[in-house]
Amino acid sequence: MSLLTPPAHVDIVEVAPRDGFQSIGDPLPTAEKIRCIQALLDAGITRLEIGSFVSPRAVPQMADIGEIVAAFVDRPGVRLAALVPNLKGAELALASGIRELVFVVSVSETHNRSNVRQGVADSLAGLAAIVERLRTLDEPGGIRLRLDLGTSFDCPFDGRIAWPQVEAVLAPALETTRGIELEVALCDTTGRATPYQVAEHFSRLGERYRDGQLRWAFHGHDTYGMGVANALFALHHGATALDVSTAGLGGCPFAPGATGNTATEDLVYALHGGRVHTGIDLCRLLQAADRIAALPGGQTASHLRSVPREKLTKC
Amino acid sequence: MSLLTPPAHVDIVEVAPRDGFQSIGDPLPTAEKIRCIQALLDAGITRLEIGSFVSPRAVPQMADIGEIVAAFVDRPGVRLAALVPNLKGAELALASGIRELVFVVSVSETHNRSNVRQGVADSLAGLAAIVERLRTLDEPGGIRLRLDLGTSFDCPFDGRIAWPQVEAVLAPALETTRGIELEVALCDTTGRATPYQVAEHFSRLGERYRDGQLRWAFHGHDTYGMGVANALFALHHGATALDVSTAGLGGCPFAPGATGNTATEDLVYALHGGRVHTGIDLCRLLQAADRIAALPGGQTASHLRSVPREKLTKC
């Protein structure tokens, strides 16, 4: 695919309500979360990672996930996903009406143990348990699964991740999930991936896996300034969904002052320049970004928000 | 050219000593400028826009250009260029030993009048006068010319710039400069260009101009977060030189707090990830960036400098 002819459409997956809200030390009031999410929907966001069904003791920021989901689960035209760390979380998510589950496993054994306190094999067993549960549903086709492969490019402990390490986790995961509607995200957890590494890994996906039910996504951070470039290189090598966070809300776990997920508004600006359809109104998205950036305790990083609003045509 | 196979080499053109030093209100001490430039050369920078031969009344920051050039003009393996606004500046530059002249004309009539207080036609006449002078030299082949086409994508006054507007200035400029060793830079003066617009304009250059003596360059800003992506899209569509500023020194004339030229270290990080040869040692470049970022009154913006140094492998 030439750089001159980008795909006509890409799914923008907004992760501020999960990655972003979780990064704020003191849990936000539920009503404020709901106002922020409503502002995102008003801007035209249609895919949203709305939160996590995790232990409120481990992650108090997500203790109100049930209320948050209840506020939005019946909205037509909005695709909500929730992160579930295990079968128990999946049960809670399904009971809440969530139709898309996000499961995370890191490609790096070291990072997986640090992140979810178990080895990759145990995480894959957890994935299998969730999939087994999905197969018992009357409407298995009605539930989507998103698999986030953390540290697909770089690990904060082990450094660069080569393609065979990704495949070593991806292959058994695909075996486990056969027949389920699946989207796999290669996640640049540290922000250290370069555009060429992103292009290489996505081109390998395209060469090796040609199952029409599979979709590919890229989840990136802008910590090293590669955010927009990495997302576009993924797009031109087969990604059909891109994870971003409005206002760049998120911060970076290892580096105070470093940025979080690539800002939704920065990526949307780039995509609209190529006439890629996202369904998002950039002006209203910036209004949502202003609200999110005003959250107490939030760490944000957005290029578009740093320029005077009148410089943004039509905003 | 596939995104998987970038060119083997690209010229990194460091513009901090011109765009950057000029952006600092109170002129820097000459000795400090020399120390910063030396640090850049120590990092492996081989192309440098070292300053401007302009009226010291108009631009006091460049009053010491003669001393600066004298300190570096005899360095082997270093290609120095200096901006010259007119024939008088060109004469001074040539007398100082400079072998590459940079001439700026904006594609936008409005911006050209604002920037250099004359119309585009008068600027082109000024270019012709310089070229005529070059043709009288004993060694015309020994002098290079760089033509910076300002506002090649967007004008702060007129908005988006379409390709025919670029061509309307480029075509007569190429006629004027025939036979001279020329590099033409499309400059994203405002930082508002998107990667797809960059790809489009460079692909037009490649289609229409096939003179082997011509080289193409891209001069970008990171104000809207497009810096690295725009540079890479230019690279994959024929640019063989990329202008950048270490530490992102420069600031933005219209937006306090907005960023200046794309940071050299951010772009070099991206390029090295694709094994593109730049000749630059990233660790030493970051040392130069630290020195530049410490300049009093300087406004900088660098992603790489914002992460802990130990996260940068081998730095």
Automatic annotation (TrEMBL), chains A, B:
Q: In its UniProt record, which GO terms are filed under biological process?
A: ketone body biosynthetic process; L-leucine catabolic process
Q: Is Amino-acid biosynthesis among the key words of this record? A: no
Pfam families xrefs: HMGL-like (PF00682)
| Record flagged with keyword Aminoacyl-tRNA synthetase | no
Q: Which InterPro entries match?
A: Aldolase_TIM (IPR013785), HMGL (IPR043594), PYR_CT (IPR000891)
**Stretches assigned to the Pyruvate carboxyltransferase domain:** 10-286
**What is the superkingdom listed in this entry's lineage?**
Bacteria
| GO MF annotations, alphabetized | hydroxymethylglutaryl-CoA lyase activity; metal ion binding
Sorted keywords for this record are: Lyase, Metal-binding
Q: Which family does it belong to?
A: Belongs to the HMG-CoA lyase family.
NCBIfam families documented for this protein: PRK05692.1
PANTHER family found in the cross-reference section: HYDROXYMETHYLGLUTARYL-COA LYASE
Task: Write down what this protein is called.
Answer: Hydroxymethylglutaryl-CoA lyase
